[in-house]
Write a structure and sequence with these properties.
The protein is of the alpha/beta class. The protein is built from 17 helices and 21 strands. The protein folds into two domains: about 150 residues, Leucine Aminopeptidase, subunit E, domain 1 (3-Layer(aba) Sandwich), CATH 3.40.220.10; about 325 residues, Aminopeptidase (3-Layer(aba) Sandwich). Bound molecules: ligand BES, zinc ion (ZN) and manganese (II) ion.
């Protein structure tokens, strides 16, 4: 590999002529190489390669011990040096280690291990628990030099694969524009020592790795600033991510195409920006997929939400670079499914626009016409996510004969107030669909909390001049009225659910992720689509 410095010299010459336009639009390729986004030299951190082994290598690097009880130590690492084992046993006892889920103990000075990292599994851990344990470990050891040796004997194929997947998810770094303090750490490989051997490895390679890569892609694109990620570069990143993946086709509607289709809502949102909007459609149909229409996943893709003329306050406005997280998650979920060749029929739609307040911007009071002919009175230009989704859902119904439609959006501050960052809001009139989403959320550790779509929201959204207004008159149910609005752009008989991820998509660092994007929804949607059981069409009550 070329050294950081020699490549940096070449790329800084390139940035002079290419200004802020990314020279290399592929986040995956840029990881481990050098990017020139934002006119800076940015070294993407290398992700540790994950390999599998049958026997414990000679001591060195960090030893990772996932334990559910004291007796697990001998099971996990039967060939561990006897004096190392005795030292670890003494340390666990004196720390009164409880083996509970998420409990960790970091030890130094044991034999020739640079570090011994014990992670508790709790009683009867399930798949999500193993993945979470891996993610916490990956995060704790993100800057640890040398190899990570995971002692995983006695764990099932699925447990090993989930733990490995978690390590990859937790090893994510978001500091890719930091130029200092970066080129020192030489990250070694992760070596999973397991008696589940080849089977665990192939499960991981077929599914876990695709999930890690998809989550990395989603988090990168959500964390990167809005001068780098805007509708056209979101499309470029998507094309790069799907290059060579079988069963996928990508369609992009540009402004003239959207004008021909009458997509006045997304065009209205994009009008105040120099960056033109796009509607991106990614179709994936795997071998063995069921007959009939696809599951449609539609995402809000506001690459920056200034509020438009209803401008936001300065405080934390920069976080609104993540307002395309829904679009990223739906695209990432399809990426994970396609890369692992899941036997499903699924379409991601990313409704991409930048919400800015220039002279061409829509005004409060303007009336827009969506693709399905419905007219919208814009009361507040900051309620823009529902506008871009109105055209995405109208297009889906007109073109895809969807079996079900799930939209995903960082839609409202109100859902954050209601549910914090523990749950995303779930809205649906189809109980069987809502139940499947809730089940998937629990299985992967991305829980949803169902909230109502009360009949009164229709009158809250009544306009004197148009079919509907884009904010409510005053019920106070900010998340619910937003959901109601989106649902008006799809026939009632189509099974539909709305996920408001404004509270869960992005936030401060915690024990499994750094500051920024959580990649929320990728695992949930991947699981939901795989396990999907047909939901009958038909009008559901309010
Ligand atoms: N993107 C925001 C919602 C948001 C806020 C996401 C905070 C994440 C964190 C959305 O476009 C918005 O501005 N919503 C308004 C709606 C209101 C004008 C009806 C809000 O929540 O205040
Ligand atoms: Zn927004
Ligand atoms: Mn907004």
């Amino acid at each position: 590999m070329m050294s950081f410095r020699s490549v940096a010299l070449i790329t800084s010459a390139l940035t002079l002529s290419f200004a802020a336009i990314p020279v290399d639009a592929d986040a995956q390729a840029r990881r481990g190489a050098i990017g020139t986004n934002a006119g800076q030299d940015a070294a993407q951190p290398v992700q540790r390669p994950i390999t599998f082994a049958a026997a414990l290598p000679a001591a060195g690097g960090a030893l990772v011990l996932p334990l559910a009880s004291a007796s697990d130590l001998a099971t996990r690492a039967p060939t561990l040096d006897a004096s190392d084992r005795a030292a670890i046993e003494r340390a666990l006892e004196s720390a009164e280690f409880k083996y509970e889920a998420r409990a960790t103990l970091a030890l130094r000075g044991i034999g020739s291990w640079g570090r011994v990292h014990v992670i508790g599994l709790g009683e009867e851990p399930d798949a999500a628990r193993f993945q979470a344990a891996g993610a916490i470990t990956g995060r704790a050891l993100v800057s640890e030099e040398g190899a990570l040796v995971v002692a995983a004997n006695g764990l099932s194929t699925e447990a090993v694969s989930e733990f490995a997947t978690g390590l990859g998810i937790g090893g994510y770094r978001s500091d890719f524009y930091r130029t200092a303090d970066r080129d020192g750490a030489a990250l070694g490989a992760t070596i999973i020592v397991s008696d589940a051997g080849a089977e665990a490895q192939s499960l991981y390679l077929n599914r876990g790795r695709a999930l890690i890569d998809a989550m990395t892609w989603v988090r990168d694109i959500s964390n990167e600033p809005a001068n780098v990620i805007y509708p056209e570069t979101f499309v470029q990143r998507t094309r790069a991510a799907f290059a060579g993946v079988r069963g996928v086709s990508i369609q992009v509607l540009d402004v003239p195409a959207m004008e021909r289709l009458g997509m006045g809502a997304i065009l209205g949102v994009g009008r105040g920006s120099e960056r033109p909007p796009r509607m991106l459609i990614v179709r994936y149909r795997g071998a063995g997929a069921p007959e009939g229409g696809p599951i449609v996943l539609a995402g809000k893709g506001i690459t920056f939400d200034s509020g438009g003329l209803s401008i936001k306050g300065a405080e934390n406005m920069g976080d609104m670079k993540m307002d395309m997280s829904g679009a990223a998650s739906v695209t990432g979920a399809v990426l994970a499914l396609a890369r692992s060749r899941a036997p499903v029929n699924v379409v991601a739609i990313a409704a991409l626009a930048e919400n800015m307040p220039d002279g061409g911007a829509i005004r409060p009071g303007d009336v827009l016409t969506a693709m399905n002919g419905k007219t919208i009175e814009v009361i507040n230009t900051d309620a823009e996510g529902r506008l871009v989704l109105a055209d995405a859902l109208s297009w889906a119904e007109a073109n895809l004969n969807p079996a079900a439609v799930i939209d995903v959006a960082t839609l409202t501050g109100a859902v954050r107030t209601a549910l914090g960052d523990d749950y995303a809001g779930l809205f649906s009139r189809h109980d069987a669909l809502a139940a499947q989403l809730e089940t998937a959320g629990i299985a992967v550790g991305e829980p949803l909390w169902r909230l109502p779509l009360h009949a009164s929201y229709a009158s809250d959204m009544r306009s004197n001049i148009a079919d509907i207004r884009n904010t409510s008159t005053g019920s106070g149910a900010g998340a619910g009225t937003g959901a109601h609005f989106i649902g008006e752009f799809l026939s009632r008989e189509i099974p539909w659910a709305h996920l408001d991820i404004a509270g869960t998509a992005y936030g401060a660092a915690n024990d499994w992720k750094p500051d920024g994007s959580a990649g929320f929804g990728v695992r949930l949607l991947e699981r939901f689509v795989r396990d999907y059981q047909p939901v009958p069409r038909g009008e559901a009550e309010d």
